[in-house]
Amino acid sequence: MYKIGEFSKIVKISQRMLRYYDEKALLKPRKDEMNGYRYYSNDDIAIINRIKTLRKYHFSIDEIKSVIEMDSTKIKIIYQQKIAELYEKTIEYNDVIEEIKAHIEPKNTTNKVNTYDVFWGIRKPFHAFCIRKVVDENGLELLIDQLLIYVNQLNPILNGKHFAIFHSAKKGDFSQYDVEVCQPIFLEKEVKDTRIKFFEEKNYIYTIHLGKYDSISYAYSALYNWAHTNGYRIEGPFIEKYYTDEFITVDKDEYVTEISIAIKTG
């Protein structure tokens, strides 16, 4: 048996962290009720080594507590989920790195200028397969992936590009959006599926945003200003239609997005 000071040196973990693991019930050292000392065994060394490994794999303390109690079959499933999670983070970090590098060494490309000309039109009625969820920016991409999987399973005749409807930002957290992603489809016969919506004919205005989404708010502002100047009332949420996105190109400077919103006369 080892006292906490001895054990700390053996496993190369501070006494403060050992006490923390004890509080979280990750370790269960024998406690002397007379003097309050903790005594650790060789079994605790094995547990500490496993905790170290799981921490290296980016498991949280609460996750580790659950994993330690799992059998090998469940652990394999958890590891697969963690791999997917880390892979998503890798993609996210790579995107951020490339953006930072672009500030250091700008690419010798022709800059695209967003003039945000505003156009007026009539949106004809159509059906679309839609799913709705509260997500953050990264969650939106995953939601679009999920939409396309569902659409492929349904295998309908497509009627244009997929788009996203931004209903609102989550109250108190503007990084979270109540968003609905939709794929227009031709509906040859009535289908009883609550995910299929009918969009009525509307007057709407739209503009085109070129490049990354970082400055897309200027496109929204252009539509607001145009409607106000010309005596129209904005009706309904904004819609982003993705003509060129990550499914077509890895270069975010090549993205082409249409932003639209329905309008009514003042």
Please tell me about this protein's structure.
The chain is an alpha+beta fold. The protein folds into 2 domains: 2-69, Orthogonal Bundle (Multidrug-efflux Transporter Regulator, Chain: A, Domain 2); 119-265, Multidrug-efflux Transporter 1 Regulator Bmrr, Chain A (Alpha-Beta Barrel), CATH 3.20.80. The protein has 7 helices and 12 strands. It has helices at 4-11, 15-23, 42-56, 61-68, 72-104, 137-154, 217-229; strands at 2-3, 30-31, 38-40, 119-123, 126-135, 157-158, 163-170, 173-186, 196-199, 202-210, 232-244, 256-265. Strands 4, 5, 6, 7, 8, 9, 10, 11 and 12 form a 9-stranded antiparallel β-sheet that branches. Strands 1-3-2 form a 3-stranded antiparallel β-sheet. The relative contact order is 0.10. Residues 170-174 have low confidence and may be disordered.
Shape: elongated
Question: How many domains comprise the coordinates?
Answer: 2
Question: Structural class per helix/strand content?
Answer: alpha+beta
Q: Which spans have pLDDT < 50 for at least 5 consecutive residues?
A: 170-174
State the order of secondary-structure elements, H for helix, E for strand.
EHHEEHHHEEHEEEEEHEE
Mean pLDDT: 85
| Name of the CATH class of the largest domain | Alpha Beta
User: Considering the protein shown, what is the CATH homologous superfamily of the largest domain?
Assistant: Regulatory factor, effector binding domain
**Through-space gap between termini:** 82 Å
Rg for CA atoms: 27 Å
How many DSSP helices?
7
CATH topology of the largest domain: Multidrug-efflux Transporter 1 Regulator Bmrr, Chain A
Summarize the biggest pleated sheet: 9 strands, antiparallel
Counted beta strands: 12
Q: What CATH architecture of the largest domain do you see?
A: Alpha-Beta Barrel
